[in-house]
Amino acid sequence: MRTVPLLPTAGGGKVRPERYHLARLGADDIADLRDALIDAVPACDTTDAELFTGPDEVEPDSVREAREAVAKEICAGCPARIECLAYALAIRPAVGVWAGQTADEIRTMATAGAREVA
Ligand code: SF4
Question: Which residues bind [4Fe-4S] cluster (predicted)?
Answer without folding.
Answer: 44, 75, 78, 84
